[in-house]
From TrEMBL, chains A, B:
SMART domains: FCD, HTH_GNTR
GO molecular function, one term: DNA-binding transcription factor activity
Domain of life of the organism encoding this protein: Bacteria
Coiled coil: none
UniProtKB keywords: DNA-binding, Transcription, Transcription regulation
Protein name: HTH gntR-type domain-containing protein
Presence of keyword Transcription regulation: yes
Amino acid sequence: MTETRGSTHAKRAAYDLRQRIVKGELPGGTRLYEVALAEELEISRTPVREAMSRLAEEGLLERARGGGFVVRSFTYADVLDAIELRGVLEGTALRLAAEAGVSSEKIQHIKGLIAQIDAGFSAAGDPPDLEAYSGLNEQFHDDIADLCPSGIVRSELQRVKSLPFASPSAFVFRRRESQTMTQSIVIAQAHHHAMIEAIERREGARAEALAREHALIARRNLEEKALAPGEGNPALALIVD
Amino acid sequence: MTETRGSTHAKRAAYDLRQRIVKGELPGGTRLYEVALAEELEISRTPVREAMSRLAEEGLLERARGGGFVVRSFTYADVLDAIELRGVLEGTALRLAAEAGVSSEKIQHIKGLIAQIDAGFSAAGDPPDLEAYSGLNEQFHDDIADLCPSGIVRSELQRVKSLPFASPSAFVFRRRESQTMTQSIVIAQAHHHAMIEAIERREGARAEALAREHALIARRNLEEKALAPGEGNPALALIVD
DNA sequence: GCCGCGCCAATTGTATACATTTCAGTGTAT
DNA sequence: ATACACTGAAATGTATACAATTGGCGCGGC
């Protein structure tokens, strides 16, 4: 089979299928046939089934009536909703963290991350390195979610973030698009500062509202990009209509 | 194998395992062994694996490192958090419904359900029939979630509700416990009225707040019951500590 | 005594043959 | 013309043998 990472055939097949789905090679609604995939990947049906099960757990596939799996369809509206839902869940995570209180060590750790992002802004105000920002931003969102004392909330948030277009780092711009991008990042970073401050001061409602507003930046960026497709983000390939 | 419903061995096995987990016969942390289960259910390993996959999708099992599945552990705190999370998601669903607007037909349908619950209250103020209330209450929660225009939010809410202790109908009292139960139901029903009114008037924030407060009733009821276990709710059997 | 190494049993991973179900196509009867 | 039942290919469901991996236990060396 194609050289993809993983220790078992099932994991490799899952990786392979996941890539194909995210790239849009397997559009929403496509039915997956065990035999065809098994032949294509040069493995037996058993690991193919296993792989499909795993992707169903991730929410990328749905079980079809009468057995089998279908690639889950995501409409453009679904993508916007998933981003908003991420904001709601992040907001809940931050509110619970604020209400429960967070140790100063953890607060300092987050502040360190934020400082790293700050350091990426030059004094001149030109756009920071997008690769670096994307990585740090994702790290920030992961670590801030870990502040939430509820494992249930953490895991459901993680679940929503695993949808390829709902991740906080999904729609970081590909190229430098005028001032829009820089401005968005400046605002987002202001949110980052405010979020940790709200948590530190145990202002739960404020933390929650900030997380929601923060997600709306991602949503707005997507809405603006969608109007001018251009070389669209690959994670959008799986949108069906 | 034991006479459980389902058309395939895998579905029967999933049903059987689900029952055992919810009843607490398979406590959190228990590792499930394919061979043992297969012999016990008198089927082969294949449908057992299939059943475990399905339960993993439901969130009742987790994949263990090195393969296999483990019964997911739910602490008492997890149960409380899951109820609160249900409130958050129901709140989001209602808010989105209110913001988008809902047709008067659907509003009337919900109002009809509420009226049916109202009819269960006698003029004397004695407790309504719990079976009937539980059924109508569950129906209300299902139907009101359907008002949400976002399929993503609906499905994630459905997912959380599928946790056996987070369902709106999970902790309806078993016997008539003084006035506590009656009072709770009266308050809950007031919330029901207010929710649909908020949606009708497109008051999103109010609808959201109501849904959260509504879930807190369920949470408080559980907290009070937990202090005096008695003949506890069976859905609580899967709590590990 | 303790650590590491390797073996063995237990467990999951995989392939494959066979059974069953599903669904579309087709024919017939009404 | 429509509804229904039959048919058969194609798909998933199941059993089972075998392979590979894991994890624990004991043996040996240090």
